[in-house]
Amino acid sequence: MRPVPAPDPSARPFVDRPVGPPELVAALLERAVEHWRLPRPRHLRTGMNAIYTAEDVVVRIGHTSADPALALALADVLTAAGVRVAEPRRPDVVTEGGLSATAWERLRSDGTDPDWRTVGRMVATVHAIEVNTLPAGLPLPTCSSFPWWNFDPLLAAVGDLLDDRARHGIEAVVDANRWWVDEPEPRVLCHGDVHPHNVVSTAAGPVLIDWDLLSVGPPAWDHSMLLRLDRWSWPPTWYAAFADGYGRSYAADPLAEAIAELRLVAASLMRLVAAQADPDAMSEAQHRLAYWRGDPAAPTWTPV
To answer: Using CA atoms, how far apart are residues 276 and 248, in angstroms rounded to an integer?
Structure first.
């Protein structure tokens, strides 16, 4: 029987804001490298977290909404349940200025497409985890409470960056699909952000990474982005394999389709928000807006 968790409506995702000023990140990185006696690190990427590699260790720096050590404890619970995740490489956390650094196994991609059947089986395992086995204090928000899921303020925030045709297309989808939030579906523990960039294909099999959006929601939530792989230039056949491993397909399921389309809205609006601070983001934002204008030649999107 699927668990029906009781989420905290006031909870925030474990990581829900950008990492912050580069000088603070650099100061913490220096402390962490010294503390853990790591070799000279190299910058890999910066998004909500700043990621560095130091030979076989990945250093992850970010703001968390709860004790950062909970990420290490969660990894232990997931591993015990049979979900392959990156393993902690140091047992402690280094903090400074509101930021925290954790050290993780560096995963080596084997260059092949992920085994999506195995990924589907792992997500089914996550959905069956009893919430009372999770580390105490771990945030457990509802998936619909994520800040970027509040569309009205996002639409207001992008202002003049939206032309009338694109705005009309987006608003029509938002208005047509608001119903899903109140749908009395079973609620399960969700990874929160299952998509190809959060799966690493290794020689030992696929690894599911980035658990910052762990949440409670309908099972369809973790299927939703994979249902629209075509919009992101990924093979749609990957979802069929994922669904086979999961044990059920949500293709053509009204709830899953509603969430999938709204996730496209959120991705488009967040790219416009990024373009307000980074002009380089505008090109991709315009690619996404072409879809909402109904352009039959709208280009596929690039994940960033």
So the answer is: 40
Question: Which residue from 46, 143, 52, 171 is spatially nearest to 101, judged by alpha carbons?
Answer: 52
How far CA 133 is from CA of 5, 66, 69, 126, in Å, comes to: 11, 17, 16, 12
Number of structural domains (the chain) is 2
Nearest Cα residue to 300 out of 228, 239, 242, 250: 228
Mark whether 48 and 121 lie in a shared domain. Answer: no
Q: SS3 for 50?
A: strand
Integer angstrom CA distances of residue 22 from 47, 61, 103: 12, 11, 19
Burial 283-304 (b: 16+ CB within 10 A, else e): ebbbbbbbbbbeeeeeeebeee
Listed residues 40, 71, 105: the one ending a domain: 105
CATH of the domain at 138: 3.90.1200.10
> pTM of the predicted model, to two decimals?
0.93
- Residue where a domain terminates, one of 56, 75, 105: 105
Q: pLDDT digit string (tens) for 185-239?
A: 789 999 999 999 999 999 999 999 999 999 999 999 999 999 999 999 899 999 9
Cα(212)–Cα(235) distance, rounded to whole angstroms? 26
Q: Is the same domain home to 45 and 126?
A: no
204 and 251 assigned to the same domain? yes
Q: Which helix (H) or strand (E) holds 59?
A: strand 57-62
d(CA 28, CA 94): 8
Length of the chain: 304
Which residue segment(s) compose the domain that 27 sits in?
22-105
- 136 and 30 in a common domain: no
Find how far residue 162's CA is from the centre of its chain: 25
Residue 97: the pLDDT is: 87
Summary mean pLDDT of the chain = 93
Residues 283 and 157 in one domain: yes
| Alpha-carbon gap, residue 59 to 195, rounded angstroms | 22
